Amino acid sequence: LSNNGLTPPKSPNPASTTHRSTPLISPLPRPPMAFSAAATAAASTATAFASGRISSSSAQQQPRRPSSQQMLPSSTFSLGAFPRAVTARRRAAPLARAAVTVRAEAKKSVLIVNTNSGGHAVIGFYFAKELLAAGHAVTVLTVGDEGSDKMKKPPFSRFSELTSAGGKTVWGDPADVGAAVGGASFDVVLDNNGKDLDAVKPVADWAKSSGVGQFLFISSAGIYKTTEEPPHVEGDAVKESAGHVGVEKYIAEQFSSWASFRPQYMIGSGNNKDCEEWFFDRIVRNRPVPIPGNGMQLTNIAHVRDLSSMLALAVESPGAAAGKIFNCVSDRAVTLDGMARLCAAAAGVGVEIIHYDPAAVGVDAKKAFPFRNMHFYAEPRAAKESLGWASTTNLPEDLKERYAEYAGSGRGEKAMAFDLDDKILAAVGKAPASVGV
What we know:
alpha/beta, NAD(P)-bd_dom_sf
């Protein structure tokens, strides 16, 4: 990877970007990475998959680190510790951004098969913008009909930003991708739509028969099995029954140059799946924020620009990405209580947090809360080691940007029901501060 002819800087030292005097998990030495030829990477995948560790580079991963629960008390993640961390990350941001800027010498033609719903659609949008800014040719194939109501929502309503930058947008059925793109040829295909082999196989088979050189897939960090040693790192055991796992195995068999990316929760302009908005909806109405459990559960929320920059580096350095799994996440976790407090700080108000036991209250936490009621976070180790990637997510600052957009949308003034919240609050003996609006 080159950056105007210069070797990109290494990722910042963790000690310079964190408020802790002792890192959460001390880095362990590892042997130098050796990137094999594409054919060698493909040949090694069968053994890797048989062991339950998907990435063909599993043997090159760092040894597992001591449990974070043994290394650091939960109080370390208190809100009061954020200012120094934010300051340090601001100092590191220019350096990190330089490391992930795409400057391709050989421009490529890239097809993005983009979902028409859910939180992942914004990944394809940002990825397309990043590639176009670097001079690549980009076609975005969105599932469905251009005239559907879904296309009136972001990020689809902002596709003019792609076409004005020289990109092409088409709509159609991924099962007949060749017809949808009119017989055009591509160097790279990203499937950002399918969640199982039935959905992805037609795209992968067409790409294979068309001579596509690199196939990328948006998977999910939700396929990891629970672990006693969070965070998840590439090579951790996965749920073999998960549809994304079947896709990863198939593309590893079909392509010598492939990579899979496992995102978690994301924020960013153009996202149409509630994340931070769920918190803003309650905070601006002076309502308590009900959080299941004790609120110290850790999760990962990344700005979508981090995800798109990681994908762009894989296009830029296909040899370094070949045959690998990447946790497509930022490099910091946040507690569920911390997310509520950071959202309140972004809105410039206080917040009251109410903890509850979903089973005792009689509610489904999946419907009552936007995040998983457990520790759920991963570390982007492979992207840092193999691609020289660095995270630029700065959650306190990014949430300020998101709140400004939220306030400008008028959503905070709309009538909104909070039936599940009221049931929870009544069960714990806490009447809501305001109701209905």
